[in-house]
Amino acid sequence: MSIADRWILPDGVDEVLPPQAEKLEKVRRQLLDLFQQWGYELVIPPMIEFLESLLTGTGTDLDLKTFKVTDQMSGRLMGIRADMTPQVARIDAHSLNKPGTVRLCYAGTVLHALADNMLASRTPISVGAELFGDTNNAGDLEIVSMMIEAVIRTTGSSPHIELGDVGIFRQLVQAAEVSVENEELLFDLIQRKALPDLTASVEALNMPKQIARLIVGLPGLCGGADVLDKGRELFVDFDAIIAKLNNLAAVAEGIRQRFSSVDIYYDLSELRGYNYHTGIVFAAYLQSAGRRVAKGGRYDDVGEVFGRARGATGFDIDLKSLTSLVEVPLSTAKKVCVPAKGKNIDNRWAKICQLREDGYIVIEGSAGDCQYELREQDNQWVLVEA
């Protein structure tokens, strides 16, 4: 390897330099302070865990994203976290094991073996919150509301909210009694909204006509509030799906009451995190960004493998992506340069400490952008303009 190649980072792996790092840290702190105001306690999961702890119940998508290494001490496979939610679920179920509702939040770097897209970072910083022990839509409304508040508080703009429920598709494929392989095929076609291929595949499976019609029509169930009315008509014979539509309506009504400026969009074919989520899924978009800035959903019973199955819902934010959209005032503290030598060394140190307590940035030695200098005059250290 040549010297010129030694500084090159792997594709998708980036570093954060000044002043962006200061900006990012301020947004991170703002988000965690907000979560604390809502009663969410901070946890710091480890960067690496045994693979089965990271991937149990999460589906193949997370498996493909996870870097895997062999533990030199135990010989077992370990994974570098690609998502912090399973770790927080383990903490709730096993490490804490508290009775009643538990609210936890987190912030940290995750590592992706494969990037989400060509422009995405493989080392995003994930900030999120998880609510455990609440199985009704009050928990969903709380989490969605905090996600909206987080976006508004940091960006100053009201997000566009998308609501869906992966359980609708799951109910339909269960009623159709399709194989796991065919379920994955239909899932892929619906996600891509490939209607001609979806129609052909459904016809080839020879499923009941009513179920076939509903599955083919699922990608078209997106838009405003009338989507729920249309869904109630289409799924009138499926009580479980009607209950999910009513849950979406209740959450949406709660959002409208709390955030009158927020637009709500429904997509009943949104299957993001299908192998992981169990019910409602949601996301926040900013018109100015043209992309998703936060996402989440319900994932009940993921903690069962750790000995505690219970309700769970949460969301996460890609901090780097969000911070790129935010105007954050950087530090305005004045810099003071202090010469490395002088006669009155004891008083020099006392003056440095006092200036730092007073809010100055004090640099021992020369620097090109100092507004002030500390000079020794008549055996005293005096602050003067540079």
**In order across it, which strands form the biggest sheet?**
1-5-6-12-11-10-7-9-8
Number of strands: 16
**Domains (count):** 3
CATH class of the largest domain: Alpha Beta
CATH homologous superfamily heading of the largest domain: Bira Bifunctional Protein, Domain 2
Mean of the pLDDT scores? 90
- CATH architecture field of the largest domain: 2-Layer Sandwich
Q: What oligomeric arrangement do these chains adopt?
A: single chain
CATH overall fold name of the largest domain: BirA Bifunctional Protein, domain 2
| Model regions low in confidence, pLDDT < 50 over at least 5 residues | none
- Principal-axis shape equals elongated
Rg, please?
Answer: 26 Å
Q: What's the helix count?
A: 13
Structural class, judged by helices and strands? alpha+beta
Largest β sheet strand count, sense and barrel closure: 9 strands, mixed
Span between termini: 45 Å
Which percent band covers the strand fraction?
Answer: 15-25%
Task: State the share of residues found in helices, binned by percent.
Answer: 25-40%
What is the element string, with H for helices and E for strands? HEEHHEEHEEHEHHHHEHHEEEEHEHEEE
